[in-house]
């Protein structure tokens, strides 16, 4: 359990780095999910944010902590990270649902996975000064 020991290191950057390492493991990092969840509620904002991002990277296992992440949506330090994680959890759940037309509906050829590959996406910002460092990291891996 080397990660668990590092989670409790006295240095904040070490804790955040350990959580980011677990996030890089993706679904393989799920064995640490409960400990990562605990880290969302204690310590420095960078550690708490890294914990939320780590759960988000765990896929379905991270989604099991949806209620815990949801309690942080209005937190001033990590609320934006929690909101991004909740949106990712919801989007992943919708992608797993079967796509079934309602009775009487006409299939117009749209699907969740277009035949020609993903559709181009444009992101709009409200204006100069609204950007922040690494602001697109929350959406860069979304389909």
Automatic annotation (TrEMBL):
InterPro entries the UniProt entry points to: Acyl_Trfase/lysoPLipase
* Record protein name field: Uncharacterized protein
Q: Which SUPFAM superfamilies match?
A: FabD/lysophospholipase-like
* Species in which this protein is naturally found: Alexandrium andersonii
